[in-house]
Amino acid sequence: MGSRKCGGCLSCLLIPLALWSIIVNILLYFPNGQTSYASSHKLTNYVWYFEGICFSGVMMLIVATVLLVLENNNNYKCCHSENCSKKYVTLLSIIFSSLGIAFSGYCLVISALGLIQGPYCRTLDGWEYAFEGTAGRFLTDSSIWIQCLEPAHVVEWNIILFSILITLSGLQVIICLIRVAMQLSKILCGSYSVIIQVTDSHGHL
């Protein structure tokens, strides 16, 4: 019972993390609240991978919902024995938790690449990735951020939002990993044994 409550709590945590991922990803399209840059495609290419909206957002909401249903549906029957049904549900939980790792991991990787690449902005030489060749070193050298003339404060905007996406998706990965470990322990430790022992009328094997 304790492990079921813990698993349910972990699944519930995925929901607000997914909703925040959607919100943060949407904000990346509107530097300083301006819509003109998105409509003219003058944004970093990594925002068009929809990592926070689709993968760490909508897909994770679906994963969290399925996991909650599996945790709370105690009367689910898929085969003749109760142990068999529990083992089947555990297997489904592992599969969907693994999908959650893949979805949030995708968001984590894309967000990290977007953070390291830097923003697409207007410099004295025109629109370009001003810090693409710095291998992320610009992140600790704020004195060169003034190279980006437009959008205003786009460097800070990208750093903050991509960092938040990395944090949110990283937490999702950790939660899903914990869930996989919990479910595997149930199987490997024999909590759902499907070995049937036949006894005679005297209670002997």
List keywords for this structure.
205 residues; mainly alpha; two-stranded antiparallel ribbon; 60% helix
Can you give a write-up of this model?
There is one protein chain. With 205 residues, the chain is mainly alpha-helical. The protein has one domain. It has five helices and two strands. It has a two-stranded antiparallel sheet. Strand 1 and strand 2 form a beta hairpin. The longest helix is centred in the middle third of the chain and has 36 residues, at 82-117. Mean pLDDT is 87; it is low at 192-201.
Compact summary:
It is built from five helices and two strands; from the N terminus they run ααααββα. The protein has 205 residues and is mainly alpha-helical. It has one domain.
Helix share, percent = 55-70%
Number of helices: 5
Trace the largest sheet across and list its strands: 1-2
Rounded Rg? 23 Å
C-alpha end-to-end distance = 30 Å
The description of the largest β-sheet is:
2 strands, antiparallel
Number of strands: 2
